[in-house]
Amino acid sequence: MSLNPSDEEIKTILSSAKTIAVVGCSPKPDRTSHKITAYLISQGYEVFPIHPQADVILGQAVYKSLDDIPVSVDLVNVFRKPEFTPPIAQAAADIGAKTLWLQLGISNDEARHIAEENDMHCVMDACILVKHQSLI
Predict the structure, then answer these.
(1) Is 76 helix (H, G, I), strand (E, B) or coil?
(2) For residue 10, what is the enclosing H or E element?
(3) Confidence (pLDDT) at 121
(4) Domain at 59, CATH number
(5) 2 lies in a domain?
(6) In this structure, what DSSP letter does residue 64 have?
(7) Diameter of the chain by CA atoms?
(8) Which residues contact 106 (CB under 8 A, 6 or more apart)?
(9) Nearest-5° angle of CA 19, CA 110, CA 49?
(10) With contact defined as beta carbons under 8 Å apart, do 3 and 65 qualify?
(11) pLDDT of residue 3
(12) Is 17 among the domain residues?
């Protein structure tokens, strides 16, 4: 049984989000994180790539961490291995994000717990592009 929000709730999450941080966004065009970030930008979201070395990805300024972003972030989309997600969940909570989204193939119970303890929605093991295309 999935613990993710229902499709109706996910539709509301995606419709109400305006700003999305993409943790683990790759500067390499062939990477899934790069392609999905490009899609999110094309759909009108204000996107903030997070990458430790890159300066610009897809014409967007890149930030080293979530707390470097100068505006409030609605949704944090994560492309990192599951073991790295709990501190990302805590950082998302610390900046007041409303949703933690772990991409397809990524789930972590501790990250979910952190999100829930901080009144955040948590979506795990789901592709934001696929959900957006099917629900919006």
Answers:
(1) strand
(2) helix 7-16
(3) 97
(4) 3.40.50.720
(5) no
(6) S
(7) 40
(8) 78, 79, 80, 81, 82, 85, 124, 125
(9) 25
(10) no
(11) 82
(12) yes
Is 55 contained in some domain? yes
Residue 44 lies in domain: 7-135
C-alpha span between 48 and 74 (Å, rounded): 11
Residue 102 lies in a domain: yes
CA quadruple 11, 38, 20, 66: dihedral sign: positive
Contact partners, residue 120, CB within 8 Å, separation at least 6: 89, 92, 93, 97, 98, 99, 100
Number of domains comprising the chain: 1
Q: For 70-121, write each residue's pLDDT tens digit.
A: 999 999 999 999 999 999 999 999 999 999 999 999 999 999 999 999 999 9
Give Rg (Cα) of the chain.
Answer: 13
